[in-house]
Design a protein that fits this description.
Strand 2 and strand 3 form a beta hairpin. The protein starts with 33 loop residues before the first strand and ends with a helix. Helix content is 48%, strand content 10%. The chain has 147 residues and is mainly α. It has two domains: 56 residues, no CATH class; 68 residues. It is built from three helices and three strands.
Length: 147
């Protein structure tokens, strides 16, 4: 994007001066997509010779271009953030029924922290702030009721 935001030409893998490397804002978590490869797009089915490929734990995915990759990435990262949030809430809930809640407290904090990382990566400031507030609430409850 020429607007100078964090996802701009200076970090784009299509910018020749970057030699096909993308900046962290275009990565899927800590995994950089591979550019300029033959790939069948999971969004539209096109098969360009200069596509984008991504291999993560869930499998290998291809994209016809940056627009479809970024749309898919955002949808999937938000889904991951929601799953992590739900796992954090589950661990928090289970703290009340546990004889030793410290492990569940640690799990809840980790899940919320990971979800906050995704919110930050996607620049979802409101969600990041809500997750931070929830993590702080869990911390306050643990400190007041379980120590």
């Amino acid at each position: 994007m020429p607007n100078g935001g964090p996802d701009n030409c200076a970090t784009c893998g299509f910018n020749r001066s970057n030699e096909g490397r993308w900046g962290p804002r275009s990565w899927f978590g800590s995994v950089a997509p591979e550019t300029g490869v033959q790939a069948a797009c999971v969004v539209c089915g096109a098969e360009p010779s200069d596509g984008i490929a991504l291999t993560i734990a869930e499998g290998s995915f291809g994209f016809c271009g940056r627009e479809h990759y970024l749309a898919w990435r955002e949808t999937n990262r938000i889904a991951q953030m929601r799953k992590l949030t739900a796992a954090g809430e589950q661990a928090y809930s289970e703290m009340y029924d546990s004889y030793s809640p410290a492990g569940l407290y640690s799990d809840a904090k980790d899940f919320f922290r990971s979800a906050m990382g995704i919110a930050s990566e996607l620049e979802l400031t409101d969600e990041e702030n809500q997750l931070r507030a929830r993590r702080e609430h869990v911390h306050a409850v643990f400190r007041s009721q379980f120590r």
